[in-house]
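Exercise 4. Each item below gives a protein and its sequence. For each, produce the structure-token representation.

Item: Phosphatidylglycerol--prolipoprotein diacylglyceryl transferase (Oceanobacter antarcticus).
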Amino acid sequence: MLTYPEIDPVALAIGPLKIHWYGLMYLLAFGAAYWLATWRARRPHSGWNDQQVSDLVFFGAMGVILGGRFGYVLFYNFPQFLEDPLWLFRVWEGGMSFHGGLLGVLAALGWFSFKYKKNYFDVGDFVAPLVPIGLMFGRIGNFIGGELWGRVADPALVPWAMVFPRADDLPRHPSQLYQAGLEGLLLFVVVLWYSNRPRPRMAVGAVFLFGYGILRSVAEFFREPDAHIGFDLFGWMSRGQLLSLPMILAGLILLLVAYRRNRFAPVS
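Answer:
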């Protein structure tokens, strides 16, 4: 069994100003997305320029933040919102949802596509490889904050199990790191590799949706469900798995439609 490396959630404090590690992870996520998008946009015949990349990352960031917060309230704690509607705006108390953030980003991409008169699915294919690396930083932030810990594990079988002080004194899976590796690093490698191959329009976005849904569902088997929710669907499926099902189905459908059309897009 490993000792959880307790890290001060405040990375830097200057008087009353406190910069938290989780906030820094968000900055790293958006910074990495901007760098990767700029690199891809500057390749020959990409069809993208620096101004478009800047606006895309800005719109995407707004979609992540607003959608993530609204999604958490709607999907994970709607009763608290009904009791205290102003809680929606107290983001410093925590509470963000990936699935809500995804919906926010999809809406933001719609506005971006309309503004620049780009095909929506082309924009989605360009954005898809940018997302997993940001997810990786986000899950590392969860680990540093000692939140969203895993289920209880047997140290004899899982020697890397950890005791998370904010949970209890039981050894648990460091599921935040599992998610950082699966839906972050692994998904990034797969989607980026696939995006550099000849493929039909909207196939890259479809691979991201399907891949994330599958990998998130796998990781959820090691993650402790939210205490106030527990399990859905007869007590065996977590809320994260339930919300990932539409992503898996949508990814499969879009992938089938993309290859049935068989219109291969230039690599960008």
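Check: Strands lie at 10-14, 17-20, 162-163, 171-172, 199-200, 231-232, 237-238, 264-265.
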